[in-house]
Amino acid sequence: MSSASANAPSTANARLAAAGLTATTILLLTAGLSMLQPLSTDLYLSTLPGIATYFNASVASVQSTLWMFIAAFGIWQLIAGPLSDRFGRYPIVVAGAFTYCAASLLAAIAPSLEVLVVGRVLQAVGACTCLVGARGFVRDLYSPTEGARMVAKAATIMSLAPLIGPLIGATLYVRFGWRSSFAVLATFSLLLAALATLKLRETNTRRNPSALMLAPMLRTYESVARSRAFRAYTLSAAATYASLFAFLSGSSFVFINVLGQTPTIFALSFATMVVGYLVGTVVCRRLLAMHGIQRTVCAGASLQAAAGVTMAALALGGVHVPIAIGAPMFFIGLSHGLIQPPVQSGAIAPFQHAAGAAAALLGFVMMLVATFVGIWIGASYNATVYPLTLTICACGLASAAIAFTLVRKDGDIDHIS
């Protein structure tokens, strides 16, 4: 273990004390703020076919409520990052949570699919702002390796959202209709806004007064993008998230319309992937302590590729049953839990004084790739399992290729404190 890693806990404790915060507060806020994005997708996944019927819309049109959310989430990060570097983490987190609450209420009363899309875009702005702020204050307070462990701990808690989200969403849909999911999201975000207002303290002690000026902003993003470590970890994050987002985009239509599951049973099938993710975040913390960031990412990517190939082989072999997708997705979820915490920390690690901008560019690339994957899943849907399973396989192979080339070559950040 490096000296920087050995000193990380004491350094983190000193930074927490100076900011008037505790590790528990940061853990709960990081988990809660990070939950907004998965809740925004997973809570209403089971209702997508129902929304299509309600508005008499096509599959591709209804899936636009998903990929438009992701696209807006990605684009807004380029603004939210500099905002957090300029004004601090506290104000943008609080503003983001209240924005998300208002957007959820708009979605809940949407009279048309177009208004629902607007509500979803505004939800993305709020959720994105909260997540960028959370990534920023974790980087303010922790070294890269310790930050990765904190993100992994938060991810374990956050995994409750996609674990129970689809089941809650399916239950709400059956009893109260699709609008009830957005009412629940509005309530949750209001509670989160209150918690952030009362408990969070400012952690950005070196705010950048020129962060929002166009020329300095572009120079900052250029400087971030030139970092080989940033590129390696960002591409790794994008590949693993693309695999997950392909499943998010297409699973409800494949499991419900193609394989004949009910919304409630689909929610249980979806949970297998989330259980894998939860297990992965727990294992991730141990692997980080034993082997460091680079080896942990490579281990996760190897598993992801193997699971993707298995899923594609089953599909091409004519095994078209829910477990042929659900079982490999358990291991893809596990691999995602191994990969995401270290790559998020690794991408931001070189930029202690531009953490917001680095987090924003990381998220933008992730969501840009996911947007194209979501559009592809909607456009290629043909009432078979093939577009979904083959896309997930391709993403897994890309994840492994990136890990064993770029991450292994350029991902050494152990010397950064």
Estimate the global geometry from the Cα principal axes: globular
How many runs of DSSP E, i.e. beta strands? 0
Determine the number of helices (DSSP H or I, runs of at least 4 residues).
15
In CATH, what is the class? Mainly Alpha
Key structural traits:
single chain, 15 helices, Growth Hormone, Chain: A, 417 residues, disordered N terminus, mainly alpha
Structural commentary:
The protein has helices at 3-19, 23-42, 48-54, 59-87, 89-108, 113-141, 144-158, 160-176, 179-199, 214-226, 228-258, 263-316, 322-348, 355-380, 386-410. The two termini are 13 Å apart. The chain is built from 15 helices and no strands. It is mainly α. Residues 1-8 have low confidence and may be disordered. It has a single domain (3-410), classed as Growth Hormone, Chain: A (Up-down Bundle), CATH 1.20.1250.20.
Task: Describe the structure concisely for a colleague.
This protein has 417 residues and is mostly helical.
Write the layout of secondary structure elements.
Layout: H1 3-19, H2 23-42, H3 48-54, H4 59-87, H5 89-108, H6 113-141, H7 144-158, H8 160-176, H9 179-199, H10 214-226, H11 228-258, H12 263-316, H13 322-348, H14 355-380, H15 386-410
Helix pairs in contact: 2-6, 2-7, 2-8, 2-9, 3-4, 4-5, 4-6, 4-14, 5-6, 5-9, 6-14, 7-12, 7-13, 8-12, 11-12, 11-13, 11-14, 11-15, 12-13, 12-15
